[in-house]
Design brief:
With 504 residues, this protein is of the alpha/beta class. It folds into three domains: 188 residues, no CATH class; 172 residues, von Willebrand factor, type A domain (Rossmann fold); 73 residues, no CATH class. The protein has 18 helices and eleven strands. The chain has a seven-stranded mixed β-sheet with strand order 7-6-5-8-9-11-10, with helices on both faces. The chain has a two-stranded antiparallel sheet with strand order 1-4. A two-stranded antiparallel sheet has the order 2-3. Helix 15 links the parallel strand 5 and strand 6. Helix 1 packs antiparallel against helix 4, helix 3 packs across helix 4 and helix 13 packs across helix 14. It is extended and about 90 Å long. The two termini are 49 Å apart.
Length: 504
């Protein structure tokens, strides 16, 4: 697959289209050609450019369609790697191996690519009747034809994948663009609520799931602290991942010239006050003036080197490489003590974090820790996340296994060093082993941030919600960057289970 048509390329195309309506007219790449045909549809263009909600629906739906096709293309390429290696190895066959193996090779290639333009009969005559299997030029031509047939087959596979999916995709897209904006208007749904709930539905609209997710999202109104925590997690890279030009200060040695200075020798530069007589002569000569100017620009003029060097403060422009955004990792306590309101608050926070991860195009993972550890790539496995929301917290808390799972995730990719890790728990957990705490400190040195959110239930009369920022987590002092506590009180708490009634 051409690098031009990777995921980043399609992201740029969609971003530009949603923002400006700009898109190309035609292209030969099957997936891109289909994307252009959809974007050039007059009705879709009007809806996307005139309505923010329609733009979001189109962007998410098309992104999912593109991702599925790219994943299938990537799979087909990986599956055919051995065949591509075989093509290269065939070029190195000896004359003896060609003599013994050309018939079987032609049969193999013809069986697979006879319909893609590979001319078996021609090479059968060349190798069988004329014995040209020993001719390097003819043999290389055969391998080149094999490669061309292989590429045409890949192209046909891409076209087939698009054809198989496009009808269902278009029906769903047109239905969503027609029905969803109307549903939002009729029910007075706020755009932020819609964006968060819709982002979890993977383009598969139905009002039952939408309203179920929306109830969780609306918890953010009751506990606005949730948004504060999510925004803290959503730190941005420097200037959106772009290198920054800044002024650097320091000290430099500078040459000072005067009649009292002592000459130490000869050096090169472009100081006109220290030119050697020969260079002055070149400057005065019309025929050598161009040479003089060149040497001046390249700082290669011969000059006197003086003794009087002094250190002076200096300022200069430097390029500071941008800090890339790492993943957002949410470690959620799913033990029995989190049942009820704590888990609902945690789910709402997770949805908000997912929205930020989508906007910033950062990986986002959920590690649920109680008896078992279940890492979920929430940006890619949204259906699995919805299933997770349908489960009930149970069991005990195993913080050690959670930390080990987090570290394994951070070690899986180099770019995962600049991560944001959030623990959500009531923190009724035993202290972790010192080795893991030390490991956390090491990750902080590579700009990984650790945060804690304690969801604390109190059994008292009345209702209360508050957030407290205290700088470091009590159970793991000096290893977290920020720690928050949300306290809430419910009159209907179950004293035996230590939880409150579910939010509906």
């Amino acid at each position: 697959m051409s690098l031009r048509y990777d995921a980043a390329f399609y992201v740029q195309v969609l971003d530009r289209y949603v923002a400006t309506g700009e898109c190309a007219e035609a292209d030969n790449e099957p997936l891109y050609a289909y994307l252009l045909s959809v974007m050039n549809d007059p009705m879709i263009r009007i809806q996307v450019l005139s309505d923010e909600v329609c733009a979001r629906i189109f962007y998410d739906a098309m992104s999912q369609f593109i991702r599925l096709n790219l994943e299938k293309q990537r799979y087909n390429m990986q599956k055919s790697q051995s065949e591509q290696q075989g093509m290269e190895l065939a070029l190195e066959w000896s004359e003896v191996k060609r003599k013994d193996g050309w018939q079987a090779l032609l049969q193999q290639v013809s069986d697979k690519y006879g319909g893609n333009g590979f001319d078996r009969a021609f090479y059968q005559g060349q190798f069988g009747n004329e014995g040209k299997y020993a001719d390097d030029e003819v043999w290389e031509r055969m391998v080149d034809d094999w490669k061309e047939a292989f590429q045409r087959d890949l192209q046909e596979q891409k076209e087939k994948e698009v054809e198989q999916r496009k009808d269902d995709f278009e029906r769903r897209l047109h239905a969503n663009l027609r029905n969803i904006p109307e549903y939002i208007r009729q029910n007075n749904i706020e755009k932020d609520e819609f964006y968060q709930a819709w982002g979890l539905m993977s383009g598969m609209w139905n009002t039952i799931d939408f309203e179920r997710i929306r109830k969780i999202v609306r918890i953010q109104k009751e506990y606005p602290e949730v948004v504060k925590v999510a925004n803290k997690m959503g730190r941005m890279a420097d200037d959106e991942g772009k290198d920054q030009l800044h002024v650097a200060q320091g000290d430099v040695y500078k040459m000072e010239h005067s009649s009292k200075s002592d000459i130490l020798g000869i050096t090169t530069g472009n100081d006109l006050n220290a030119l050697l007589p020969t260079e002055l002569a070149h400057c005065a000569d019309d025929e050598l003036e161009d040479l003089f100017v060149y040497k001046y620009i390249t700082r290669k003029l011969q000059t006197f080197r003086y003794k009087s060097e002094i250190m002076q403060p200096a300022r200069r422009l430097e390029i500071k490489p941008a800090t890339q955004k790492g993943p957002m990792i949410v470690c959620l306590d799913t033990s029995g003590s989190m049942v009820g309101k704590p888990e609902k608050i945690a789910y709402s926070l997770l949805i908000k974090i997912l929205e930020i991860a989508d906007r910033q195009r950062r990986d986002c993972f959920l590690i649920a820790f109680s008896v078992s550890i279940n890492p979920i790539d929430v940006r890619r496995e949204r259906a699995r996340l919805l299933e997770f929301f349908s489960t009930t917290s149970c069991g005990d808390t195993d913080a050690t296994r959670m930390l080990k799972a987090t570290f394994r995730l951070l070690q899986s990719k180099k770019e995962y060093m600049n991560a944001d890790v959030l623990w959500i728990s009531d923190f009724k957990i035993p202290l972790s082993v010192p080795e893991l705490t030390d490991q956390m400190l090491e990750y902080r040195k590579v700009d990984t941030h650790f945060y804690g959110l304690q969801l604390e239930l109190r059994r008292m009369n009345g209702c209360l919600s508050s957030i407290v920022y205290i700088g470091s987590i009590i159970l793991l002092p000096a290893v977290t960057d920020s720690f928050w506590r949300i306290r809430f009180i419910c009159l209907n708490c179950c004293r035996n289970r230590g939880s409150c009634c579910s939010i509906v």
